[in-house]
Amino acid sequence: MNTNQQGVILATTPNCCPAGTRKGWQSVAAGVIAGCVTRTTTSPLDVLKILFQVKSQGATTLQSTCRTLLQTRGVTGFWKGNLAGCCRLGPYAGVKFCLFDQLQTLAHRDNDTPTNVGRATCGAIAGMAATFFVYPMELLRTRLIVSPMPLTIRYEARRIVQADGVRGFYRGCTSGLVGAIPFEGIQFACYEYGKSYAMTHRWPPCRWPQNKTQLQTVDHLALGSIAGAVAQVVAYPLDTIKKRLQLQGSGANARYDGMVDCLAKVVREEGATALYRGTVPNMVRLVPYAAVMFASYEAAKDFLKAL
């Protein structure tokens, strides 16, 4: 075989790692990194939020909850369930960001301008798929945080299987899937719109010196925090319902008969404000959570592209 023939064969041989596949794996890897970083940095506030949500009566103050947590579990109590949380949020973010990017690419193959409805739809679908994929770890994480006794992931998983079988890992999943629609849909729509607006209008002016051509980490932090705050106001009641369903007993010990029954009983017995119990620590948690998530994802993706 002569040199010219070898050149033709090499030129026509398919790339073992097509651009689309490479971009997809970059999104997955960047999402996993962002999820683990975000979960670890915001774990204390996430623990406080869950403890507030599952109190059925007489919620205490944030200060007294912190004091009780320190007295009973020490400083490490604020990171209780963090391993399960990383095992959940890492894959969750990886699936979510990868699927969102792929859906955006498919939806705008003709290079048409993305709409807010389109962004929200892609975000909602990506959020639902990611929620279903990692829901068992979400359930385990919640139980590890709330349990007064130190438990392992293996022990709690075995107990769930013995009590309810494999389907026990998806208790409360319906409310989680429903909650992912407004939360991820609104969050992605707000974030992507904010990026587009900031780039197009070079806004705010104080963040755009003459030589600046692209968004920086501070910009991603600000846009992510705004998007997360808006989304949580809409979706928080569904997250509360999900946590209640995750922690109830099974069979005859079950207090709620599904999402609608749980919603009705909480409102009737505790008032509508109970659906927003823990929203203050959650807002304090979610603003940095969303900021770190989007900023670390953008940074990780840029780093992986440069490799």
From TrEMBL:
<comment type="similarity">
    <text>Belongs to the mitochondrial carrier (TC 2.A.29) family.</text>
</comment>
<dbReference type="InterPro" id="IPR018108">
    <property type="entry name" value="MCP_transmembrane"/>
</dbReference>
<keyword id="KW-0812">Transmembrane</keyword>
<dbReference type="GO" id="GO:0016020">
    <property type="term" value="C:membrane"/>
</dbReference>
<dbReference type="InterPro" id="IPR002067">
    <property type="entry name" value="MCP"/>
</dbReference>
<keyword id="KW-0813">Transport</keyword>
<keyword id="KW-0472">Membrane</keyword>
<protein>
    <recommendedName>
        <fullName>Mitochondrial thiamine pyrophosphate carrier 1</fullName>
    </recommendedName>
</protein>
<dbReference type="InterPro" id="IPR023395">
    <property type="entry name" value="MCP_dom_sf"/>
</dbReference>
<dbReference type="GO" id="GO:0055085">
    <property type="term" value="P:transmembrane transport"/>
</dbReference>
<feature type="repeat" description="Solcar">
    <location>
        <begin position="114"/>
        <end position="197"/>
    </location>
</feature>
<feature type="repeat" description="Solcar">
    <location>
        <begin position="22"/>
        <end position="106"/>
    </location>
</feature>
<feature type="repeat" description="Solcar">
    <location>
        <begin position="215"/>
        <end position="303"/>
    </location>
</feature>
<keyword id="KW-0677">Repeat</keyword>
<dbReference type="Pfam" id="PF00153">
    <property type="entry name" value="Mito_carr"/>
</dbReference>
